[in-house]
Amino acid sequence: MPRPTSAYRRLFALPGARAFTAGNLLARLPMGMFSVSAVVMIAGERDSYALAGAVVATGLAATALVAPWIARLIDRHGQARVALPATLVAVLGGLSLILCVRAGAPDWTLFAAYAATATTPNIGGMSRARWAHLLNDDPAALHTANSFEQAADELCFMLGPVLAAFLSGTLFPEAGTLTGVLLLATGMALFTAQRSTEPPVRPPTGPSHPPYRAPGMPTLLAVCLAMGAVFGALEVVTLAHADALGHSTAAGPVLALQAAGSCAAGLLYGAARPTRSPERRYPWCIAAMTALLALPLLAATLTGSLLLLAAALLVSGMATAPTMITNMTLVQRRTPEGRLNEGMTLAVTGLLGGIALGSAVGGWAAEHMSPAVGYGVPVCAAAVALLIAVTAGALGRQGVAGASVSGAR
């Protein structure tokens, strides 16, 4: 087996890879900042967590509706032509939110301003599309690239909330949102300026069905919904459990450990060379994720120790990245030619919907039963994902038909 760093060194030796990755990371970091910074800013200025939560929930709902449409435009007209104007609208929405909060504008203006940020393009999907274009004939290198992208997701969602809370808490309430807006604009400008690595627009050569109707895609999207519920429930229940133990300030670092475990596992997984096909690996990855999620449940219910819970979350996170990497690989393979951004954005939309659902169910369980028992919600959601993957059957059999739609990548 090659050294873990060698696979990534070869990856970033490709012309233009480092430049678009730098822009990608700058633009992606705000994705983990916006929700937290908006809640801190609105709750701090308006003294209402209910209003802050409602504004963020509206933004997530708007994203679920708008993001696939933006991705479809990117597939049809190219990344630079669509992503930059769409980002400008999102930036104006973020700045409007700051001004409305600062000026004491009516509450409805906060909803409108934050909803405008839903035009933010799926930077992770665009970056994966570039790798798929550059590494079309090298499945092993594409596996490494997808692993890096998943690790980058975990890193940004680990650092983003911490950075947002720090800036808003130590400087001024609007600092987190303002910094996120500036990072998004700068990163997207740098990313879209790298035209040499931008995938060409491929007009459909015949009738093109929506990605969600492609063979195998309904199963993948359903699994994304269930896995999103895992993430949403895990976050809310951990916050509630830490608060119940009198260590509410430790909730952020504890959750960061879960993301850290996933990030590290993702990088190691990318350096490996799996011998089985993604279709065969997929249910095993979900099964491992389900089994490891039992560790936080056991730590919370049997020990009550926040330290042991943190260790359990670190270990349980190690199955997250391999599962998501395999999931995105299958989404790429099943998405019809010329609609890759749309297909991957649909997967992200499924995750967002699942996060909202998991947050609601996890919050109910933590309040009406106990935060410790609430850790059973992510276990159940992962088990549902496993059941879907296994009973659908056979992603491998569907994959034979799917391959004729998307072609070898």
Molecular structure report:
With 409 residues, the chain is an all-alpha fold. The chain folds into two domains: 157 residues, Growth Hormone, Chain: A; 202 residues, Growth Hormone, Chain: A, CATH 1.20.1250.20. The chain is built from 19 helices and no strands. Helix 11 runs parallel beside helix 14 and helix 11 crosses helix 15. The chain starts with a helix and ends with a helix. This is MFS transporter. Pfam families: MFS_1 (PF07690). InterPro entries: MFS, MFS_trans_sf. Keywords: Membrane, Transmembrane, Transmembrane helix.
Instruction: Give the N-terminus to C-terminus distance in angstroms.
Output: 24 Å
- The total strand number stands at 0
Q: Give the overall average pLDDT.
A: 82
User: What series of H and E elements makes up the topology?
Assistant: HHHHHHHHHHHHHHHHHHH
The whole-angstrom Rg is: 20 Å
Shape: globular
Please give the largest β-sheet: none
Tell me what portion of residues adopts beta-strand conformation. under 5%
Low-pLDDT windows of residues: 394-409
Structural class determined from secondary elements? mainly alpha
CATH class of the largest domain: Mainly Alpha
In total, the number of domains comes to 2
Transmembrane segments: 21-43, 49-70, 82-105, 214-234, 254-272, 343-366, 372-395
Pfam family, one: MFS_1
Protein name: MFS transporter
InterPro entries: MFS, MFS_trans_sf
